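Complex record, four chains
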Amino acid sequence: MEKNGSPVGTQAVQRAMSVLACFRDGGPMLSASDLARRTELSTSTAHRLARALVSMGFLEQDARTSRYRLGPSMTELGQLSFHQRGLHRVAPELGQLARATSATVDLAIRNGRYAVILIGGSVDPESGTGLRRPLHSTALGKVLLAWAPPGEEDLAALGPLRAQTERTIVDPCDLRAEIERVRKTGYALNDGESSHGIRTLAVPVLDRAEQVRYALAVRSTPEVITDARIGWFAMHARACARALEVLLLSPEERRVTDFG
Amino acid sequence: MEKNGSPVGTQAVQRAMSVLACFRDGGPMLSASDLARRTELSTSTAHRLARALVSMGFLEQDARTSRYRLGPSMTELGQLSFHQRGLHRVAPELGQLARATSATVDLAIRNGRYAVILIGGSVDPESGTGLRRPLHSTALGKVLLAWAPPGEEDLAALGPLRAQTERTIVDPCDLRAEIERVRKTGYALNDGESSHGIRTLAVPVLDRAEQVRYALAVRSTPEVITDARIGWFAMHARACARALEVLLLSPEERRVTDFG
DNA sequence: AAACGCGTCTCATGATGCGGGACACAAGAT
DNA sequence: ATCTTGTGTCCCGCATCATGAGACGCGTTT
């Protein structure tokens, strides 16, 4: 994938993972040649890796079309990690925030050069569970950059800052300044920088080590999130973030009819 | 993992996946040497694989303890596959069944030699999201065996049928007969075969190809699920299963405040 | 019919992953 | 204090393993 650090010792593994990573952007079902194209591997290699992944349940192959999709092991380990993070407990809180603000609410984590929305409540193509958003042009991303853990705060590692709209911050210096502002004010704003007529406000969510692990965002139009009401939205978002922090900290506790 | 088919061409990948698989049974955080022990790999290899997985976000390493846990890519792809399967839409239905029957409800998928609970609403150690249950000693497992897809119906591949209680079916012939009965009646029963004083009833959930993809179970004590009421529970479970089938088939449709 | 695209498999080659071993560090045990 | 045991980390030569060209059969398109 990235031509970076890890020099040797793991080529096959990296390639296998990049096969899995295809499903992030590609549709839910990909053919063997799709995989070969997307990963830029030879068909033999892609095919062999896919078979290996199938044999361990990380992919599964449709009997009729012989196309691949993410397999039960992926769902299993994903659910496991979702629960180990305690994320199943936060959904009700997010719904409450969505209703209180009449906005779309997303919870995201950083994964490499992207903010990944783990729980999201919208159908619009820029929000919703599973989506990967750029770090420099979204409120979620700015929050995750502003309090990035040591080793991940390098803006140069983001590569060229692609413009999504004419308001997108494309100059690294401007981005640095913006991120400094986010750190000062405690929240990030995206005012039409990733798509026209959409305004997003995001705040950090801390883990037990007091490090920013997730970002919480409310999205709506500038008519709803007006300049005058930004403070109000920030307050609500932060209150929700604090509630999430408590939920994520607290030990396991479920009832029989809980299905978050 | 299994010493089966795939002869060559994928050793590194299989090993990397078996590193990930450690987290199924092990705790949420494992040290490098834990991984080496569980995978039966040399410490060098386990370490190198773990590093590779970290570099791609499939694992993450705690800065303080240098132990590993499942990483954001795992959560991301897991959530993606969870949504691609449409599973986020079924939780309310499961909750309703749980309330209607005053029982614990679990939805499971087959993964190799296990039934994996993808959504479960209980704290008891035999139920709940993420758990792996044997196929031969659970109602969920019997359902998944009874309508196994071609290539997975071989009971011999299950290995020795380990006894959980004195009622567990350990003879392959008995299991074959039991499975035949499940096919005939349309539901499976587990009456203290995996743990004393627990009775479970499971029914199949079909996908769009009319194949059994999931199993749905209600669990309680024999005092609740009495012999006389088994039919009633089966009916309710099947009704819920049908509702799930419709939900899983229907195209994407969410509202802003949905947080399944 | 011919030309494509696709999924699948084989096989010789050498690049790649392997693990013994070394080192540093920490926490008990003697 | 010194030894012991368990860690996490990294190097580096050897040979095992992954690699990709190519072949084959099968549909669909031209």
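Note: The longest strand of chain A covers residues 212-220.
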